[in-house]
Design brief:
2 copies of one chain form a homodimer.
Chain A (H helix, E strand, L loop, with lengths): L13 H20 L7 H8 L3 H7 L3 H26 L5 H18 L1 H9 L13 H21 L5 H12 L1 H10 L4 H12 L4
Helix pairs in contact in A: 1-2, 2-3, 4-5, 4-6, 5-7, 5-10, 7-8
Chain B binds a DNA duplex through helix 1, helix 2 and helix 3.
Chain lengths: 202, 202
DNA sequence: TTGACAAGTGGAATATTCTCCGTTTATTAT
DNA sequence: ATAATAAACGGAGAATATTCCACTTGTCAA
């Protein structure tokens, strides 16, 4: 279906759309050949045959570009979560939390390259904190709700926001791939450790 | 080469020492005037009146430079820890852990600028993980020992290495200053949250 | 003292990021 | 159609990061 609803906002110009597609294609191509981090914005602009200015007009940095590239996947990921939550709405919150973590880790494993790209330059450009991104914000929201539920169930008063922040940090590239690559932990082991720590066995 | 056994590393040349001092002075001066992150290596080289090559020969990046600048402070910090641990060697490990965290947070607050600099570019240059630095490695070691002790005391079998990794991540700039600046938590509150989570009340 | 040579130096060269701005072009109202 | 206009373009170029290497200079041993 096309979004031909009469938006007051002038829709994207045709040539602009073409260029964007060229940029995305170029990025995909280059990302297949080299590590995301190795590919420079210049290379992408070059490959796409647009000037660097054009590229930057559209994407403030590589991170945004990557986000655009996996946007669809992210949407699918959240669909999966929604389905999972519906199917398990009667399970205890701790079980649901674990399920979500598991889904995210699977997602992270599948799309590690691009996901890494998304989180990357967010440390250079905006002030800081890779915790700030649509993807992470939405997850944060889910996690906070689950932690809140757990607090009710278990009669605890843990700080849901703080714990969600930390949990997300543990799932972000820096920490996660350190555990994978340096500590040699498998995704499953990481999941277990996180559950042990965050799903109060307290 | 001479067949003799003198493996002594030729000590730093006099002129090199002078240059290094000039670089450090220049860095201090610039860091006082601007945020650490704003100051470029070039500026430092300029201010110190050495070529960029000379600067890079000594410090692979700003991070290393910062580390050199706070090296003394870091040493003092570890002295404090040692003293603290001696004075409290009979306290339960959980108490000692909290003490160390408190000391580190105080340290972090006092030297936030430079410490931030230390952790900064380490994300760009080497593969990744700001967990890797002499400062953090040494802390990691301490933490692991305390967690191990706690496991014995409390008859648990938590993963000390993993928990130490995560705890350090929570104390690193990204996470810590996010909590401070965005969540508006005080150092004390952060400390409490970390203790709640990591010092098993389980 | 001296000379061999490792250590150290400067800065040109290359690569990247990112901005600025004059020019081009698609769209839309007429 | 056509002109007005906002959007989009592209590339020059400023600021950085980082490397390379031909040249200098302390140091040490004889």
């Amino acid at each position: 279906m096309n979004g031909s609803e009469t938006t007051q906002i002038r829709s994207e110009r045709r040539d602009a759309a073409e260029n964007r597609q060229r940029i995305l294609n170029a990025a995909i191509k280059l990302f297949e050949q080299n590590d995301v981090e190795q590919v420079s914005m210049n290379q992408i602009a070059n490959e796409a045959q647009v000037g660097p200015g054009t590229l930057y007009r559209r994407y403030k940095n590589k991170s945004e570009l990557c986000l655009d590239l996996i946007k669809d996947n992210v949407d699918l990921f959240f669909d999966d979560i929604e389905i999972y939550l519906k199917e398990n709405c009667s399970s205890p919150p701790s079980k649901r939390l674990k399920g979500i973590l598991s889904l995210f880790i699977r997602f992270r494993e599948k799309k590690s390259q691009l996901l890494t790209g998304v989180e990357d330059s967010s440390s250079t450009n905006p002030p800081r904190s890779r915790i700030q991104s649509p993807l992470f914000n939405e997850l944060h929201h889910l996690l906070v709700n689950l932690f809140d539920e757990m607090n009710v169930t278990k009669q605890t008063r843990l700080n849901s926001v703080f714990n969600a922040d930390l949990l997300l940090t543990a799932l972000s590239r820096d920490f996660y791939s350190f555990q994978r690559d340096v500590r040699n932990y498998s995704p499953e082991m990481i999941l277990e450790e996180l559950c042990t720590l965050f799903i109060s066995l307290k």
